[in-house]
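# step 3/5: fold
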Amino acid sequence: MPVRACPHRVPTRVPRLACKPCPAPRADKPPAPRGETAPPRAYPHAVRGACEPRPVGLSRYARGALAALLLAGAVLAAGCESAPPPQAAGKNVVRPTLGFALDVPEGWTWRDLGGDVALEIIEAAAAKTETPAPAPGQAPRPEKRGGAVAHAVVVEREGMTLEAWADQAIKDSQQFQSALEAAPPEKTKLADGREALAVTLRNPRGLRPLVQKMLLATTKHRAYALMLTAPEPDMAAAEKAFKKSFETFVVW
């Protein structure tokens, strides 16, 4: 008996959950001779796994269209990044991605860091401090050097107020130096006229008291802090040099 092809083949692009049985042989066909068995009919769709449910996926064209849409979204997101304000032009350090710019004092060095602390500014020439004379029979003590270091901090804070940011910044500093005492924040403004707060923290304890001065500002999506830290004997000179950075610090 000749092999019959299944007349209801399903298109390959349509997911097939089940295959219907092929129709019985037509009545006009003579049956197989007695004592003989008709050969089994071959079903062209009876491939292993063909009648099992198939996951419906994206076609090659759909995947290409989706990739194009994702790429266009990334381009639009990059294009929506705020441009630096005019006050950022000509600054030593301009970080458009993080949205801040400032000038670094002459003789100071800086480097980019990862995480919330985006920038570190170090006083290159540390001021020498007086070293006590050695006692009789003791080796001379190495000279102690004072110095200042500054950091620019950028954190993602959606809609945070300036006062709330000041409270958090003070608490964060006190986690590292529990003896730090904060003076009441003072209102000030950045170079572009944005409202800001100036905070001074002191650690009056220990052999060398520590002083930290912070300039805080916020935008719609971020909070910024420019912090100068130095031993108390060196803070006056460091603050005088770092005044340039405080006065040119802008965020957007």
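# step 4/5: annotate
The CA atoms of residues 180 and 203 lie 4 Å apart.
# step 5/5: archive (pending)
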